[in-house]
Amino acid sequence: MEDELDALGDRIGYRFVDRSLLELSLRHRSWCAENGDAESNERLEFLGDAVLGWAVADLVFRRYPQDSEGALTARRINVVQEAALAAIAREIRLGPSLLLGNGEQQAGGADKASILSDAFEALLAAAYLDGGAAVAFDIVERLVGPHLAALSDRSGHHDHKTELQELCARNGRSAPSYSVTSVGPDHAKVFTATVVVDGRQMGTGDGGSKKAAEQSAAAMAYEALSKRA
């Protein structure tokens, strides 16, 4: 286990001073249930989600100075969602390092997107606690930054409206409704969309087209409603 911890530290570019934090970040609750109810990585995951959100927000804010709030939100959501984080976890071969219960291990838990994404957030929190904010930000910039650029290039193809509609349906909320206004001449209009759910305004977004503005607004609403789910 010691060698594996060192190897994982090398893969993320940081050697832990307190390696017990690194080990804790790898403990899935299924393993803990089989080992005397040891502490799992879930508390670290909670902290890591916040650290990741802060670091990615800082990156997109600096890299895309012309983006509106809604566009920045869309870029952030693209890269912190489960599938994107799981892909990064696979790149650093996080799965084989996880401590999983026998049943979860046999069920392929080491490659499940939900487990990988949660463990990546826990790992980030462990680095934050061990080395501080600068260490955590460096890890996010090196590991998540390249994916941010790639996903941002494809952000116009990411269907935030569908994701928002599905989230509302799962949580028993009303279907999202959109209103759009525009300013400027016909050849250079700027559209602003507002999305309302359950009678409350949940997001706004700008874009060069009605569709882009609605997507941006939907991304902001999705993030807001996800925190309330």
**From the alpha-carbon coordinates, what is the Rg to the nearest angstrom?**
20 Å
What's the mean pLDDT score?
89
Are there runs of 5+ residues with pLDDT below 50, and where? none
Strand pairing plus helix content: what structural class? Answer: mainly alpha
The proportion of residues forming helix, as a percent range, comes to 55-70%
> Per DSSP, what share of the residues sits in E-state strands of 2 or more residues?
5-15%
Q: Biggest sheet, open or closed, and with what strands and sense?
A: 3 strands, antiparallel
CATH superfamily placement of the largest domain = Ribonuclease III domain
**Integer count of domains:** 2
Query: In the CATH scheme, what's the topology name of the largest domain?
Result: Ribonuclease iii, N-terminal Endonuclease Domain, Chain A
CATH architecture of the largest domain: Orthogonal Bundle
Count the DSSP helices. Answer: 12
Tell me the strand order in the biggest sheet.
1-2-3
